[in-house]
Specification:
heterodimer, A: mainly beta, five-stranded mixed beta sheet, four-stranded antiparallel beta sheet, globular, B: mainly beta, 52% strand
Amino acid sequence: DAKTTQPPSMDCAEGRAANLPCNHSTISGNEYVYWYRQIHSQGPQYIIHGLKNNETNEMASLIITEDRKSSTLILPHATLRDTAVYYCIVRAESNFGNEKLTFGTGTRLTIIP
Amino acid sequence: KAGVTQTPRYLIKTRGQQVTLSCSPISGHRSVSWYQQTPGQGLQFLFEYFSETQRNKGNFPGRFSGRQFSNSRSEMNVSTLELGDSALYLCASSPLGYSYNSPLHFGNGTRLTVT
């Protein structure tokens, strides 16, 4: 299954847009890109997911490049509560039956007041 | 809508004991899956239940077992606890079964410490 690569850490000023990149250069056609975030001592929180089209919900926007090899999660107006570790993962049909759901190390996003 | 609820939040056990963890999914969700999260191994899949049937199982020893009830609530049991079982155990529910276009919604987990 496709692996993802994310920068280990990022800072963003409060009120600005936070743009978190993810590379998934080996993604295949039936793999969805998912974003979760995890605040210390809590479970991962679902943010957004997509296959090939850009997606938007009340939390964030997901921009997937045309070749699907990378994506960007956008938090439009970051607040201090958005400080967390953000994980980009891919989920593949080929793993059905024994899904690993490997979150990797993610990006530690710190919102600066 | 209430989220996924896991109890207890924290648990301390000694080696050799057994433990049962509980998970109540989001109302209407029929798929419940369990994961173990440790700093070294990240998040690892344990098993998934749908309509009281175990559909998928990860690479964990038989000491790890689970079940799902008719109201979709699920329990996970670990017997003969080992020090290496210390971890955050997460439960996730999904509305449409274990589909890759269906997001998993996680609880806040049970932090198990084995001494």
